[in-house]
Amino acid sequence: MWAGRRVVLGVSGGIASYKSCILVRRLIEAGAEVEVVLTKGAGEFVGPVTFEALTGRPVLSSLWERGRALAHIQLSQTADLIIVAPATAHLIARAAQGLADDILTTLLLARTAPLLLAPAMNDEMYARSETQANLKKLCSAGVAVVGPEIGALAEGPSERPGRMSEPETIIAHATRLLRGGNLAGRKVIVTAGPTRESIDPVRVVTNRSSGKMGYRVAEAAWERGAEVVLISGPVALPDPIGVMVHHVETTLEMEQAVRAELPKADVLIMAAAPADFRPSSPNDAKRPRVDGALAIPMEPTGDVLDSTRGVRKPGSLMVGFALETGDALAKGLAKLERKGLDLIVVNDALEPGAGFEKDTNRVALLGRDGTRQILPLQSKREVAEAILDRVEQTIGR
C-alpha cells in the first residue's frame, strides 16, 4: 500500500510535534518516501536535524532557502498525500483563510494532493467557535481531519478533545484516504469472535474463536472507505480504528445486533463463531464441585444468518464462514446454498497453521456463481484483503 508513495509531512509549532518523529518512522517502515516541512515554530520544538536523520532527506523550513526556491511547489504537486501533524489552531486558521505567509501554508495553497490534518491544541482553543468554523470550512473544501482525542495535554489532564491522535491512528486514516475502492460509502457489517452461554453465574459454554479473522476484515473494510459496524463477541483485542463496535455476549444478543443493523447494510460478513448450543436451564447459583459429576442438558441456539434472512437489504451481499472438519468444501457448498449466501469462506479446523487462535489461515472462497478460489496459507490480514477483493468485484458489477 505505502511502497513508493510520496508523503509530505508538515509540522507546525506545538508540543505534540515530538509524535511527528514517530509518525515519520512508521511511514518509512511502511515503505513511504517522506519529505518534512517545518514551520518556524515547529523548529523550536524539534529541530530539522532530527527529521533529516529519520528521513535521509533535507528538511524544508523556509521559503528563502538558496537553491530550493521552488521546492515547495514541486513537493505540493508531486506528493501522493500531505499530512499536517500537529496542526495547531494558528496553522488551521491560516489554512482556512488561504494565507501563504510561510513555507507550509504556501505549500498547502499550491497542493494538488489530498490533505489530512491532525489537530493538536489546548482543549479550550479547540472548543472555540472560531476554530470549529475554520475546521468546518476546510472540511467543506475536501480536507480530511483525524482527531483530536481526549487525553492528557501538556498543561495537564483534560476531559475534552485537544490531544493529537497517535501516529498509528493517523496512518490508518491516511491509508483510508488513499485507498478508495468500491466499498467507499457502503455500509459493511462484520461479526467476529465467539459467543458465551451461561451455565451458571461463573461458568460458560463457548469455543476457541479469538476474533482475529473478523477484526482483520473490519480493519481492512474501513481502510477501503466503508462505514463498518463490527459486532463482536468476547475477545482480547483492541477495537479497530474508525470502526463502530457493538460488544455482545450471547448468540441471541449477536442475532439482535445483526437484525438491528442489517436492513441498511450493503454487505454482511459473518466471521463470528456463535455458540451452537446453550444450557437449557442455567443455574442461578454456582454449583460446587463437591456436589459431584455435572450433566448439562443442552439445546440449540438460534441461527443468526437464517433468522435474519427476512431483514436483508435488497441487493445486499451476504458472506458466510464455514469452519469444518473433513470434506470442508462439500460442507461449505451445502451451507452456501442452505443459508442463501453469495460467498462462503471455508477452512478446515484441523489444517496446520489455520483456524482458531492463529495469526494465519488457509481458506477457500466459494461463490454462488460457481467460482472457487483456493488461497495459500497466509496472514489473516492477507486473507481479509482477498475476501474484500471478491466483495468489491461482486458489489461493483
How many helices in DSSP terms? Answer: 14
Low-confidence stretches are none
Beta fraction of the residues?
Answer: 15-25%
Radius of gyration: 25 Å
Overall geometry comes to elongated
Helix content: 25-40%
- Average pLDDT: 88
The rounded distance between the terminal residues' Cα atoms is 24 Å
Q: CATH superfamily of the largest domain, called what?
A: CoaB-like
The counted number of beta strands is 21
Biggest β-sheet: count, sense, barrel? Answer: 8 strands, mixed
Q: Any idea what the CATH architecture of the largest domain is?
A: 3-Layer(aba) Sandwich
CATH topology of the largest domain: Rossmann fold
Topology:
Blueprint: E1 6-11, H1 17-29, E2 33-38, H2 42-45, H3 48-55, H4 71-78, E3 81-87, H5 89-96, H6 103-109, E4 115-119, H7 123-127, H8 129-140, E5 144-145, E6 149-150, E7 161-163, H9 167-179, E8 187-192, E9 197-198, E10 204-205, H10 212-223, E11 227-232, E12 244-247, H11 251-261, E13 267-270, E14 277-279, E15 298-300, H12 304-307, E16 317-324, H13 328-338, E17 343-348, E18 360-361, E19 364-367, E20 372-374, E21 378-379, H14 380-395
Parallel strand pairs: 1-2, 1-3, 3-4, 4-5, 8-11, 8-13, 11-12, 13-16, 16-17
Antiparallel strand pairs: 6-7, 9-10, 14-15, 17-19, 18-21, 19-20
Helix pairs in contact: 1-3, 1-9, 4-6, 5-8, 10-14
